[in-house]
Amino acid sequence: MMISRTCGFGAAAGAFVGLLAGLAGAADWPAWRGPQGNGSVEGPAPPLELAGKQLWKTALPGRGCSTPVVAGGKIFVTAPVDGQDAVIAYDPDGGELWRRTLGELTPGRGQRVGSSANSSPLVAGDRLFAYFKSGTLAALTTDGEELWQVNLPGRFGKDTLWWDQGTSPVMAGGRVVIQVSQTEGPSYLVAFDPANGEVAWKTERKYETGRESGDAYTTPSVVKVDGVETIVSWAADHLTGHRASDGALLWQCGGFNPEKKGAWRVIASAVVDDGLALVPYGRGDYIAGVRLGGKGDVTDGAFAWKQEGIAADSVTPVVEDGRLYLLKDGGRTRGTLTCLEASSGKQLWQERLPRGPQVYYASPIIAGGNFYAAREDGVVFSAKVGKDGLGEVHEHALGEGVIASPVAFDGKLLFRGDKHLICFGDE
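and the corresponding structure tokens:
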């Protein structure tokens, strides 16, 4: 089975070679989970020890939880501005370039981890796509000109998620794709023409689940499976593969929640590596390696391996060089980092980060061989990733809470805190 990452945007932004390749330079982090969609990036490593390495700190106009993206020498952040959904662009030194408001926001539910702006934007060539809890999906140029917007709940049905929006847009088949998965409301994948916002296709994706278990805050992956560009969607107790050109369901895998237990909503996204989807489920109690491809219901033969007790509920794993890194985000074993062989699920090593009473919501990253993870209280852990474990573990307090994930670009490390963007690097 040949599997590779691809993504397309059409003539407006040029060809894609690999996930977002051709859109992003070597120094870019253009989408949720980075240029390869797996939380890891090659190139120059950001500083390992952050003390004394802060380059700048820029105040944000309001609290949001979305991870920033970086492309073409600009940093893009979604945020609330005077009661409006907004996108703000900054230069690499933290100076504001422009801001664009996009209509009335829908407030977060008042929880410390929620906001009106939870979803990461996506940059494809000279276009930027931003999605908000309000249901607004907007397209802009990277210079801040609004091109179009559409409101998904207004057009396709009410938002019934228990918590704040979490999924981020992806590019597939030359279109902008949004996943909506709800227990009580409409569930679907929908693709928009990036030039004008017209619906290219819409595919229903509804499964019978236990109470709240159909709600998902995950982001799909886009890969080539047996030569077909495929959207791999993890939500509602099912992993599914959809043809990117028209949204058609190619295959589906159940078996994650055969008893239809309630409250098994999913937050942590699946990641893809060498023909396997690596799927956290069961509120962080389980993770499975699931073979991609096939036709129809592939549940019986799809599971390559399963592990129990080491995955995370909210934190998406990292994959690099065939190794899967799982950070336990809550419970008594929070802060435990487990490294598995992605192909087999075999545990290679396990370590514990320094303990604290807080949990993790930010997904960790690996950049230039260094591991970075931010705890909810804004304490950042950094370490060298070795064959047999972590080395040179450092701890640094940002001084404010962190829900968004770190971003690495051009040897720098960017954090979005409750109040500021904070950047670290070597002078």
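(Above: one complete record from the training split.) The two ends are 45 Å apart (CA to CA).
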